[in-house]
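Chapter summary example.
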Amino acid sequence: MSNSQIIVGLEIGTSKVCVVVGEVNDNQVANIIGLGQSKSRGVRKGEIVDSSVVEEDVRNAIVEAEHMADVEIQSVFLGVTGSHMRGFNNTGVHPVVSADREINDADIQDVIKNAKAVNLPSDHSVVHVIRQHFSVDGQDGILNPEGMLGAKMEVDVHVVSGRYNRLQNPIRLVSGLHLQVENIAFNGLASSLATLSTEQKELGTLVIDLGAGTTDYAIYSGGVIKHTGVLAVGGDHVSNDLAYGLKVPLGRAEQLKVDNGSAVIDPESKNRMLDLSTDNIVPGKKVNLNHLQMIMSLRLREIFELIANDIDQAGLINYLRAGVVLCGGGARTPHITKLARDIFKLPAAIGRSSTVSGIKNALDEPEFSTSIGLIKFGAFQSQAIPKREGLGRAIRKQFVSLFGGRK
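The structure predicted for these 407 residues follows.
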């Protein structure tokens, strides 16, 4: 691929560290050429709790990805999540003061600057300010107002913020491995970049990334981001519920979830028992399959209902004409799409990274959506910001990303 650049996406997840290497051409078409994974041991609910072991896990995943892609990784785009992150909409207003009332680029930058002047807690920092639509003198839905005439211009934006110190923890860890963090992106937005087509973004789609420690979600409608959120609940909580409810060790509960789990209860499982008598840890133990599926279904149902309530309060449920897309490791749960259809009363499907090419096992597995989306995010950023700045400065300046907005 001529005139291409190497972009690397890094997700430090609760259950795994994932590194994806992409080769991106001048047309922003990404080809996945490398993949590295490592079991994650020092992360809880999407955030680092033991830096020393996380450093080792990240290093192992980086080395594996380098060997597969035959490149030396020097910088990454880093995914971030956590219960401290918040998404909300804001509006900026700017009077057009030129004599001829023609809107120029300086006016556009000023109105966006005003939209970014949000009243955040002192310990919070803006991660994304994502343009939605402009309006000029009451005319809504304008994508690019430059050259138009008007007296007052407004812009709607979606803002994603998080606690500064908690955002800095993974950044400092990666920097300590002599890797440059080009930028950070909210995992839910990255996953939507990987899995949604232009048509799905336009029609309206809810993307739910079911991770081990968190569940991230984002809504696209009219081609732009409308809403984002994080729940500090994920697949690990399902395993914990099973361990408690079935009275088995956590590791055994995790294996039972993988081997026999389901998002809905199979009526035929009522009288079926799982014999654990050969297990050295719980000898002679038998588990009711119906009970196992009931525990799983209740926890997953709760996650979906919390998201549905949030979307309903935001008034966005009727905007989701393309339905629900599920990704993350939790999307592997049997019958998860059926449960999503039951809760949201919308079509539901497993997300695939169809917007990129390359290594098939990376593209077909829903747990790689975030890392692949980070490559697309990186491609957008390199296009929008020719001269990259240091990340700390970029966060403080509250940069604008291109998740659906137009330059």
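To summarize the output: The chain is about 35% helix and 30% strand.
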